[in-house]
Design a protein that fits this description.
Elements lengths: L2 H15 L11 E7 L4 E5 L12 H11 L7 E8 L9 H10 L5 E6 L4 E5 H4 L13
Parallel strand pairs: 3-4
Antiparallel strand pairs: 1-2, 1-3, 4-5
The chain binds zinc ion.
The site of zinc ion has 6 residues, from helix 3.
């Protein structure tokens, strides 16, 4: 994945952010997940008055892709964007879901609305992840 491709995925994530349902925190996050067929699955955070059911943008995109029939491991990259000071990073729960469904060397493109961008792999974000294979990633 070159920088132009990464920036385009980040742009789509920032656009998906506009759909966020975040009346409680006001913290809107968007995500764009690229699969191996070249399809992009968008996600946004969806909050809830009960807080517990709240779902992050990254997991919304991942679960949406799975529901659309994309098999485990068939992802190329994911981007996440929010109006943060530095690049927006996935929470611990999303890192665990990324480790479950995505290749350990898959790039996770983190950005904000100012154009900051940082790219780390799934296994760099969650070394020694608990997975189906047991200790599959980094
Ligand atoms: Zn999360």
């Amino acid at each position: 994945m070159d920088e132009k491709e990464a920036r385009e995925l980040l742009r789509l994530a920032a656009a998906a952010r506009e759909r966020a349902y975040a009346p409680y925190s006001g913290f809107r996050v968007g995500s764009a997940l690229l699969d191996r067929e070249g399809r992009v699955h968008l996600g946004c955070n969806v909050e809830n008055a009960a807080f517990g059911p709240t779902n992050c943008a990254e997991r919304t995109a991942l679960f949406r892709a799975v529901a659309d029939g994309v098999p485990r491991g068939a992802f190329r990259a994911i981007a996440v964007a929010a109006d943060t000071e530095g690049p927006c990073r996935p929470c611990g729960v999303c890192r665990q879901v990324l480790a479950e469904l995505c290749p350990p060397d898959m790039p996770v493109i983190m950005g904000n609305l100012k154009g900051d961008m940082e790219i780390l792999t799934v296994s760099e974000l969650l070394p020694g992840a608990f997975t189906l294979e047991g200790g599959r990633s980094g």
